[in-house]
Design goal:
The chain starts with 24 loop residues before the first helix and ends in a 15-residue tail after the last helix. Among the domains are: 50-159, Endonuclease III, domain 1; 225-259, no CATH class. By secondary structure, it is mainly α. The chain has 13 helices and no strands. It is 54% helix and 0% strand. The longest helix is centred in the middle third of the chain and has 19 residues, at 103-121. The chain has helices spanning 25-39, 50-59, 65-79, 82-87, 90-97, 103-121, 134-142, 149-159, 169-178, 187-197, 203-216, 237-240, 243-259.
Length: 274
């Protein structure tokens, strides 16, 4: 019989993809410095007491700053204290916060959170959180119904002056485009990552400057990359630039290299004529 040769199947090898390289602490600090110079300075004065800040945060979900401010003002005009809100009928809370939108969802959430705080703490005063380690304070807040990492971060940072991250859509988008976090990192996971990467004394400036940058320049649709103060540190900007802007950028880079004997200069923001 003729000899039949068997073909040997080689085992498949799996190539593990490397995680994308992200910005160093020094580069992140540079972006904070440049954005703070562009949009700041910022004052870290407490906006509201911590429990009021939490209620305001709930009211601010899925609406504008104007509407949430109006809803909070109406709520406090109607009930005067949050202790009264905690014992009020949900229908009355709904009526008071109607200008903020989604009142049927937010009213029972506010009442539930306030009563849970009273159950756990005996009062609505959350100033004791300031004396706790940051992770313990975050954990205490996150046991409350509907309070996630962003809401907890807002209360701790804006009311108690603690170096807690509060990642909204603007900060998340800007951080991903700049390569501060990886492209697949969720907003929830970004909180702990960024608290490791940003120095505690810079967390507030990071928060406010990145929000301003996301709203004014690094917008979700049609970002204004030619106007970006940190464009020289952004690995994503060429993806969003028009051919005309790319041509102007290439020309600028050639002139910069020619003018420095071949040594590339760091990015410098262009002055704008008012």
């Amino acid at each position: 019989m003729p000899r039949v040769e068997r073909t040997r199947t080689m085992p498949k090898t799996t190539v593990k993809k490397r995680a994308p390289k992200t910005k160093s602490k020094a580069d992140i600090a540079k972006t904070i410095e440049m954005m703070t110079e562009q949009y700041g300075p910022f004052s870290q004065e407490p906006r509201l007491p911590p429990t009021d800040e939490m209620v305001f945060t709930i009211l601010s979900q899925h609406t504008s700053d104007t509407n949430s401010s109006r809803a909070y003002r109406r709520l406090m005009e109607r009930f005067v204290t949050l202790n009264e809100v905690a014992t009020a009928d949900i229908a009355e809370i709904e009526k008071a916060i109607a200008p903020g939108g989604l009142a049927k969802i937010k009213a029972p959430r506010i009442k539930e959170v306030l009563n849970r705080i009273l159950e756990l703490n005996g009062s609505l005063d959350l100033s004791f959180l300031r004396e706790m380690p940051l992770n313990d304070a975050k954990a205490w807040l996150r046991q409350l119904p509907g309070i996630g990492p962003k809401s907890a971060g807002i209360v701790l940072s804006f009311s108690l002056g603690m170096p807690a991250m509060a990642i909204d859509t603007h900060i998340h988008r800007v951080s991903q485009r700049l390569g501060v976090i990886g492209p697949k990192v969720s907003a929830d996971k970004a909180h702990d990552i960024l608290e490791e990467k940003v120095e505690p004394e810079e967390v507030f400036n990071f928060h406010v400057s990145y929000i301003n940058h996301g709203r004014q320049v690094c917008r979700a649709q049609r970002p204004l990359c030619p106007e970006c103060v940190v464009g020289g540190l952004c690995p994503s900007r060429k993806k969003f630039m028009s051919k005309k802007d790319l041509g102007a950028l290439a020309s600028q880079e050639r002139q910069t290299i020619a003018g420095t004997g071949g040594a590339p200069m760091p990015h410098a923001p262009q002055s704008q004529t008012p």
